[in-house]
Every structure is written in C-alpha cells, then in structure tokens.
Amino acid sequence: MKRAAAITLLLALATATAGTFTLDTRSRTRDAAGDWAVRQQTVLWEAQATAVIVCDMWDLHHCKNAVDRVGEMAPRMNQFLHAARAKGALIIHAPSSCTDFYKDHPARKRAQAAPAAAVQPKAIESWCHWIDPVEERQGYPIDHSDGGEDDDPAEHAAWAESLAKLGRNPRSPWKRQVDVIEIDAKRDAISDSGVEIWNLLEARGIRNVMLVGVHTNMCVLGRPFGLRNMARNGKNVLLVRDLTDAMYNPARWPYVNHFRGTALVVEHIEERVCATTTSDQLLSGKPFRFKGDTPPHIVFMIGESEYGTAMTLPRFAKRQLEYRGIRCTIVHVNKNDPNDFTGLEALQEADLLFLSARRRTPPKAQLDLVRAHLAKGKPLVGIRTASHAFDREPPGKHHARWAKFDDEILGVDYRNHHGNRPPKDPATVIQATAAGAEHPILTGVPLDAFEAKSHLYKNKPVASTVSVLMTGTLAGRDDISEPVAWTNKANGARVFYTSLGSTDDFALPAFQRLLLNGVLWALEKPVPPADPRVVAGK
C-alpha cells in the first residue's frame, strides 16, 4: 500500500508539473551612473494559460542576410514550439500579410472562429509605435532609418534580381511562413490580426504570452499582436531573446556589428517594454546563437602604479568595448605580489592581449603565456609603461625578464622620458603624421595639434616595420620629437601601442577614440566613422 501511494503521489506530481513552464527571466534598469542594473527572476506559468506568437517568420525577405538568419534560426524555433505545444501552450503563427495563403487551413479557421472578446483594448487592431511617452523620448538604441538592410550592395542587387525572376516583388517577396516551422492543424492558430489574436487569448483564458520571430526592432515590438500591445493591455509577456533578429545595418549608429545591434534592442525592451527569456528554458542545451555571432575576447594584463590604469582601463573596457559586444577579462597584478598575474591563463583562449604593466617580472609560466599568445600571431595593444613592462631583474629563478620586449614586439627602443610634467613643465603636443592621417586608427581623432597630459617618452630608434601615426613634441621645443602612437607587425600579429595613457589622458575624447580604434584595428574589426557620439557619454 505504501508503495502504491508513493507511485500515485509521483504520478500526481508529474501531472502537476507537466503543464507548467519554469522560466528564468531578465529585465533591467539604469543606475545613477547610467549603467545597467540587471534583474533576474524565475516565473512559473501555467502552460494552458500561455500562448507563443510566431512573428513574421516569412519564407522570403528583401534582405538576403535576413533570409539566411531566419533559415538558421528556424529549426531551433521549431523545436521550441514543439516543446511548448507538448506542454499545452497555444501556438499562434502570425506571418503578417500572408494569411490568404492559409485561408482553408484549419488553424486559420480556428483563429477566425474565436468569439469576440467582451472587452476589446483600444487600438488593438493597430501598430503600436511606442509603449508610452517615456519610451518615445528615449528612442531606439540603434538607427534603423534606412530600413536596416545589412546586405552587401552588389549581393543585394543580385538578390533583388533573383526575387524578380521568381515572380516576387523584390520589396515585399513574402508569401507564407517559412516551411521549416511546422503548423499543427489540430491545435495551432494562424492570424495576423490584433483583434483575432486578442479574441483567441481571451476565449482561452490566456494570461501569458511569449513572442518569437522577427524583426525585434520593428514587427516584434510594433505589430498589433506585438510586445507593446500585449504588455500595455495587461498580458504577462516575454520576448524569447535568442529566437529573434533585428533589422540593423552596422554602417549606421552606433556602428556595432549586426548581432550587437540586436542585443542593444533587446536591452531596450528589457528596460522599457517587458522581460525576456531564452529557448533553453524549454529545451536542453544552451541558448541559440547565430554562427556568425562570435564576439572577440580581450584579456587586460594590468600591473603598474604610476598612472591609475587599474581604474581607467576597466572603465574603458566596460563603456567602450563591452558596449560593443567585446568580451573583456581583467587580470590585475596580485596586491600581495607585484609580479604575480593570477588568472592570466585566460590568455590561452583570448583574441587580443591589452598590456599595461611597468617593470614586472612574472613567473616564467605566466610570461610564457604572453610569448605563446604572440607566437601564434595574435594581436597586442599596449599603452604607456607597456614599453618597459617586463624589464626588471627577476626576484628569483622561477621568474622571467623580457628586456627586449620593446624592440622585439613594439618595434622601438624605450629610453626613459624627457622629464616634462605638465602643467608645470612644457606640455606634450600631439600631431598626426602624414601616414597616420590616412590610417583607420586615427578616424575621428583630431589631426591638428592638441595637448596631452602625459609626459613625453623617448622611443627611438624605430624599426622598419613600424608605422608612426602620431608624434609628440614639447611646447616651445621644436628640436624634440618622439613617436607616441604607432603600429607594428610581430610574428605576423598586429600590434598597436601608444605612450599616452595617464589618468588625465583618459578624460580626453581624442585619446579614448584613439584607443578604441587601435583595439578594433588590431582585432581586424571595422572602425566606426568620424562621429563624436562614438565615445561621447559611453
């Protein structure tokens, strides 16, 4: 009897949980400094009180890259819909302007047959441009005023031609939902009408809505059945953030890659519209990720006490690099051991080493990590004291010195400094070289002379592989000139170095832009155009 009772209890528990979704969700607000405060919350939703709306997963699109991304995402979305349906959720397929294709489909008739809701929300039949005046004042975090197409122009023209040959309108070629996504004729619904979908939700007592599909910054937000209308009319609504894609052209503000542009829209939604979740909440494994969405990884190696980079560089990494979707790992020197960089093992998987150290002699195993990184042809960015990062007598046989790091990697011979300490001493005046003026690293950096706060380093002679981008002189001393920013090639790796980098230099937009451009160039990523907003306020 006890065993039978236990089995009965287990079956009852299994039945109780089979029809529920346990979902980890994410929302966000901004703190006083303007940085995100992220809130994680777990919600429990009854499956039969839940609908999943599939937004505009069309068979074709005027943007070829958008079609390719839909094709890549659709199999995972189909698995997600299967899992939700199996739990008891209603799946609503909403391929806008394509419902005539399904006019005889049972799922289409099911949507049309839903009884009129007792209360119809205001404008539920209309596009919703903003959820409230606060969102409207804030606006979008990306510029999609060009429509967001990110195709190569030549490829786009060829794509439009191929659509025309298929008998499709190149501007609106969609006819149906992509066929990878299955429609269950016995349980699903098909509609692009805000009224019909609202009727379905109300008739079935559906309080919870998840949205998947495209495009995040357009239809997913604004359609009559989109996130804004669902949220402002009282539904519990979640965007499944890994099963969506934006229309965003990286040539437009804020000049980030396409996937980061989508992520910025998701962050906007989490702040202003609704929380988000991920498909792995219903499926095994990790959240879906597009194959091209592989953000670079930078390891910062920081160990100097002269210029405050232990504070300025993490701030720069967060506001200029992580904002752009670049993953940053900060490795500080051990407070109790001035030569130990615990955690530097992260460099083994890094794409770039950012070095700010002064006369440290790490354990040999740690310095070998630096050597191995460079031997693989992986890039390096160094500032200020990186020219003499490892030039000091080792404290013991297990530590290592690299006195020729400046010659071998940076391509110069560091020989101390000129001793000027602005503002008491003559200022360091920075000027672009003729070669530098044409280099992408100086995009958005003033080419005319400007004053920097750092005293001037002696960095001569320079190797033949070095390309000097900027030189520095002392105010009133035309007889002194030193390279202050340059590129080099070491073991085939891109190297960018600047002898600037004092705390006060980081307050200069010109220096922040120089450093950002140097990192992107070293990673072989596009450098944003000369727009002052690129570093302002970030």
In helices, the fraction of residues equals 25-40%
Domains counted in the coordinates: how many?
Answer: 2
Radius of gyration computed on alpha carbons: 29 Å
| Terminus-to-terminus distance | 68 Å
Average the pLDDT over all residues and give the rounded result.
Answer: 94
- Please tell me what the overall shape is: elongated
CATH topology of the largest domain: Rossmann fold
Number of DSSP strand runs: 19
Give the DSSP E fraction (strand runs of 2 or more residues).
15-25%
- The secondary-structure class comes to alpha/beta
| Unreliable residue stretches | 5-17
CATH superfamily descriptor of the largest domain: Isochorismatase-like
Spatial ordering of strands, largest sheet: 10-9-11-12-19-18-17-14-15
CATH hierarchy, class of the largest domain? Alpha Beta
- Write the CATH architecture name of the largest domain: 3-Layer(aba) Sandwich
Main sheet, how many strands, which sense, barrel? 9 strands, mixed
Describe this structure in words.
The chain is α/β, with parallel strands linked by helices. The chain folds into two domains: 17-281, Rossmann fold (3-Layer(aba) Sandwich); 297-534, Class I glutamine amidotransferase (GATase) domain (Rossmann fold), CATH 3.40.50. The chain contains 14 helices and 19 strands. The protein has helices spanning 2-18, 64-87, 106-113, 133-138, 153-165, 194-203, 219-222, 227-232, 258-272, 309-321, 364-375, 405-410, 434-437, 509-522; strands at residues 20-30, 36-46, 50-55, 90-94, 189-190, 208-214, 236-245, 275-277, 297-303, 327-332, 352-357, 380-383, 412-417, 428-432, 450-452, 457-462, 467-474, 477-490, 493-498. The protein has a nine-stranded mixed sheet with strand order 10-9-11-12-19-18-17-14-15, with helices on both faces. Strands 5-4-3-6-7-8 form a six-stranded parallel sheet. A hairpin with a 2-residue loop joins strand 17 and strand 18 (477-490). The longest helix is centred in the first third of the chain and has 24 residues, at 64-87. The N and C termini lie far apart (68 Å). The model is unreliable at 5-17 (pLDDT under 50).
